[in-house]
Amino acid sequence: MGRNVLALNAGQPDFDTPAHIKQAAIAAIQRGETKYTPVAGLRQLREAIVRKLERENGLKYAVQETIVGTGGKQVIANGILATVEPGDEVIIPAPYWVSYPELVSMCGGTPVILSASAADGYKVTPQQLESVITERTKWIILNSPSNPTGAVYTEQELRALAAVLLRHPHVWTMTDELYEHLIYTGEPAANLVAVEPSLRDRTLIVNGVSKAYAMTGWRIGYGAGPEHLIRAMDVIQSQVTTGACTISQWAAVEALDGDQSFLGEWREIFKQRRNIVLDSLREAPGIDCGNPDGAFYVFPSCAQLLGLKAPDGSTLETGQDFVRELLELEGVGLVGGAGFGAPANFRISYAASEQQLLEGCRRIVRFCKAITA
Ligand code: PLP
């Protein structure tokens, strides 16, 4: 018999790509736009990226300072592949998106994991950053809003980190801004380069259409940074994939240049869903959700429950055990925190309907109430 599993583990919006964006792709196919594009992307898309950066972030970039990749992931990978050599260190605040340390290790680099505490909202402090910078530090990777924690750095917090970075001119920053449009504080996203323009020459901005425009399957991401870095990334991309999918690039032009009004509507929906999860899980003993301001994830800690017994009598040693037992006993699918560098946590995605979220949280509460010493 099929089991009623509620999957709250999605890493993508549950909305469909808006019709006008799909239409732009269909029109591109019908015009015969089915050949290779330049490796770094269609000129029209790179110009749309330049306009986006100016309009939304107040940043001026030239077309040759931008690059289009097959998803934000390829842009991140190319940035690391182009720069990291064996022995180089890359500072990765934890909890982190799973791919950062793996990509650094692939290049023979050393991921330097910098644990941000729940008490600090899972954001690193300037003192913490200062304490791990060495002569071998190549990058720090900042992801705001964060997958998995939903943490969002404010302008003031970025300014404080920038002050540290200014003291260490050899350190580059990669800012992963894929969730930029999903912030629920009412404030726009703060941007490191806008906050401290002198860091522009050693910052790679990474963004894309995947999360904001519900376009994960179209595989379009982009980067903006100094031309010499972009050129090195272009060389790598030319040997690995060539330009990103031509049809998707035309869709992305429409995403960036076209109607943006649905973004605010989606943001409201996500905010309501987040509130449902936070309110519901207040009833769950031993679960600490914090106060995530962005993305579409809640990343609770179940540290207080570790060492206790699940309803089937087994001992919960890690967040992974919590997730496994919850799936087995209550049929709720979540992601354990180990892969994000936080083994006592788990990730709930609220890219799901309100009804699914209410039912999922009801089951999580019931499970937690049945945990015993
Ligand atoms: N950065 C973060 C923080 C993500 O969560 C993801 C996707 O899950 C990516 C980058 C990659 O995005 P894309 O699907 O555009 O490659």
Structure description:
There is one protein chain. Helix 7 (192-195) links the parallel strand 6 and strand 7. The strands form three sheets. A seven-stranded mixed beta sheet has the order 2-8-7-6-5-3-4, sandwiched between helices. Strands 9-12-11 form a three-stranded antiparallel beta sheet, covered by helices on one side. The protein has helices at residues 19-30, 43-57, 71-81, 99-106, 126-132, 155-166, 192-195, 227-240, 246-257, 261-281, 319-330, 354-369; strands at residues 6-7, 66-69, 89-94, 110-115, 137-143, 172-176, 203-208, 221-224, 297-298, 332-333, 335-336, 346-349. The mean pLDDT is 97. The chain is of the alpha/beta class and 373 residues long. Helix 2 (43-57) packs parallel to helix 9 and helix 5 (126-132) packs parallel to helix 6. Pyridoxal-5'-phosphate is lined by residues 11, 71-73, 97, 143, 147, 176, 178, 208, 210, 216, 221. Pyridoxal-5'-phosphate binds next to helix 3.
